[in-house]
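In line with agreed milestones, work has continued on tokenised descriptions of protein folds. One protein thus recorded appears below exactly as we store it:

>
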Amino acid sequence: MPDPTPTPVGKLKRSYLLHFIDSTFGGQSPSWFLIGRDIEDMSVELNPDTSIKKNILDQTVAEDNGYEPSISADTYYANTGDAIYSKLKDIAMNRKTGEDCATKVMEVIIDDDGSSHSAWVEDCVVKPQSYGGSQGAVNIPFNIYFNGNRTVGTAAKTGTPAAWAFTPAS
């Protein structure tokens, strides 16, 4: 009988770390849009909030206030067929703020050959940084600002190759 334990994949390719945003921006059921098609380099910037203080006893004390993570999606070519296009256009062109920019981000790490993978979902704010660009395509670069309520679980492909579902850990 085969071992049901997934096998680690070894050195992870960059394509094994996936980032999605919920294209419904607050809909009843999330529809995960995979970010990265035109992006050559993208990271989650953790932006750790720390301070170092020296007290009157000449002792150094590090104060850790957590993180303020964000993602900069520097290249998003406007594509009317993309699930996020109309919302990014609306936010940018109508200068939307607050709840109009709120959605969820899902991060998935494919580090084994199983059918489901480690995943995290968190509230976020999506803010286009500019629009326009050079000859060839309209670029709407945007930032994703993580906003708390982080949930750990698993994600798996469902149905079509682009469809994913998140299951919170129990």
In short: Residues 14-168 form one domain. The helical segments are 85-93.
